[in-house]
Amino acid sequence: MAVRERELRRQCKQLLRKLDIQPPLHVNDLCRRLGEHLGKPIRLIPWALPVPGPFGLWMSRPNEEVIFYQEETTRVHQDHIILHEVGHILADHQDDGDPGGEFPDLGPDFPRDLITRGFRRTCYTEDYEREAELVATIIQEWAIVIDYVSARTPEDPALDPLRSALNPPWGWA
What we know:
Blueprint lengths: L1 H17 L8 H12 L3 E6 L8 E6 L2 E7 L4 H16 L27 E2 L7 H23 L10 H7 L7
Parallel strand pairs: 1-3
Antiparallel strand pairs: 2-3, 2-4
Helix pairs in contact: 1-4, 3-4
């Protein structure tokens, strides 16, 4: 797993550089840019997912990626859920079987017509769940650290040269 972790970290860093994602992290912006990069939009749908049950679901469709995330939780938790599902996309996880199979009960109003394929497991015992969680953590770590070490833009633009001299560009370098 250590080799895969290093590779995932390297891939995430390269992708975030390529997408020009800068802190503060806005997950919706990341998903929009990632969708453009992939040539396939990522649609985010908040949903009151039943508890207990999954916090998020990813469904890959021919013309879009669809991520459902728990509507009834904090924004920080929602961002992590979305990033976990993005982790499945970035780690190139594949369909796990029959879309009509063991899909959890998501309530009578859930748009089941969207279900074509996706991940339906709710524990982190499988390698791909750990990888997806790792991707979410890598992105959030980056956002927190870079936001913390990055100086705020001074109100006086004349201070920009001093700011540059005192604050090296940590980023993804």
